[in-house]
Amino acid sequence: MFNAPASPCGSGRGNHESSEHSPRSYFREQDCFLPIANISCIMKKMLPSNRKIAKDAKETLQECVSEFISFVTCEVSDKCQGEKRKTINDDCNRTVTVLKKEEGAFIMLFFHL
Amino acid sequence: MRQAGAYSGLLCGGVSGRTGPHSLPLARIKKIMKNSGEDVKMISGEAPIIFSKACELFIEELTRRSWIMAIQGKRRTLHKEDLASAVIATDIFDFLITLVSSSESHAVGGATNVMEVETIDCS
Question: Could you tell me where the Basic and acidic residues compositional bias lies (chain A) (predicted)?
Answer without folding.
Answer: 14-23
